[in-house]
Amino acid sequence: MAASLVYIAAALLIGLGALGTAIGFGSLGGKLLEGAARQPEQAPQLQGKMFLMAGLLDAVPMIGVGIGMYLIFVVAPGIAA
């Protein structure tokens, strides 16, 4: 029973991390388009900042996958034994 809770926790960790990142990317892209539409001459600077933030935003699901894999392959077998 306890091992199944670890699997559920890992699934929620990975799934909610991906969902939050998807919402963040959508908001980031929308704000980039708004800013570029308001001030077209600032579009290259805004695009550079957007790519920087996209790289930082991409780290969230990668960390979540790493922690989820740790839970699945290290913690859960230790509980079941």
From TrEMBL:
<keyword id="KW-0066">ATP synthesis</keyword>
<dbReference type="GO" id="GO:0045259">
    <property type="term" value="C:proton-transporting ATP synthase complex"/>
</dbReference>
<protein>
    <recommendedName>
        <fullName>ATP synthase subunit c</fullName>
    </recommendedName>
</protein>
<dbReference type="Pfam" id="PF00137">
    <property type="entry name" value="ATP-synt_C"/>
</dbReference>
<dbReference type="GO" id="GO:0033177">
    <property type="term" value="C:proton-transporting two-sector ATPase complex, proton-transporting domain"/>
</dbReference>
<keyword id="KW-0472">Membrane</keyword>
<comment type="function">
    <text>Key component of the F(0) channel; it plays a direct role in translocation across the membrane. A homomeric c-ring of between 10-14 subunits forms the central stalk rotor element with the F(1) delta and epsilon subunits.</text>
</comment>
<feature type="site" description="Reversibly protonated during proton transport">
    <location>
        <position position="58"/>
    </location>
</feature>
<dbReference type="GO" id="GO:0005886">
    <property type="term" value="C:plasma membrane"/>
</dbReference>
<dbReference type="InterPro" id="IPR035921">
    <property type="entry name" value="F/V-ATP_Csub_sf"/>
</dbReference>
<dbReference type="GO" id="GO:0046933">
    <property type="term" value="F:proton-transporting ATP synthase activity, rotational mechanism"/>
</dbReference>
<keyword id="KW-0812">Transmembrane</keyword>
<feature type="domain" description="V-ATPase proteolipid subunit C-like">
    <location>
        <begin position="8"/>
        <end position="71"/>
    </location>
</feature>
<dbReference type="InterPro" id="IPR020537">
    <property type="entry name" value="ATP_synth_F0_csu_DDCD_BS"/>
</dbReference>
<comment type="function">
    <text>F(1)F(0) ATP synthase produces ATP from ADP in the presence of a proton or sodium gradient. F-type ATPases consist of two structural domains, F(1) containing the extramembraneous catalytic core and F(0) containing the membrane proton channel, linked together by a central stalk and a peripheral stalk. During catalysis, ATP synthesis in the catalytic domain of F(1) is coupled via a rotary mechanism of the central stalk subunits to proton translocation.</text>
</comment>
<dbReference type="GO" id="GO:0008289">
    <property type="term" value="F:lipid binding"/>
</dbReference>
<dbReference type="InterPro" id="IPR000454">
    <property type="entry name" value="ATP_synth_F0_csu"/>
</dbReference>
<keyword id="KW-0446">Lipid-binding</keyword>
<dbReference type="InterPro" id="IPR038662">
    <property type="entry name" value="ATP_synth_F0_csu_sf"/>
</dbReference>
<dbReference type="InterPro" id="IPR005953">
    <property type="entry name" value="ATP_synth_csu_bac/chlpt"/>
</dbReference>
<keyword id="KW-0138">CF(0)</keyword>
<feature type="transmembrane region" description="Helical">
    <location>
        <begin position="6"/>
        <end position="29"/>
    </location>
</feature>
<keyword id="KW-1133">Transmembrane helix</keyword>
<keyword id="KW-0813">Transport</keyword>
<keyword id="KW-0375">Hydrogen ion transport</keyword>
<comment type="similarity">
    <text>Belongs to the ATPase C chain family.</text>
</comment>
<dbReference type="InterPro" id="IPR002379">
    <property type="entry name" value="ATPase_proteolipid_c-like_dom"/>
</dbReference>
<keyword id="KW-0406">Ion transport</keyword>
<keyword id="KW-1003">Cell membrane</keyword>
<feature type="transmembrane region" description="Helical">
    <location>
        <begin position="50"/>
        <end position="76"/>
    </location>
</feature>
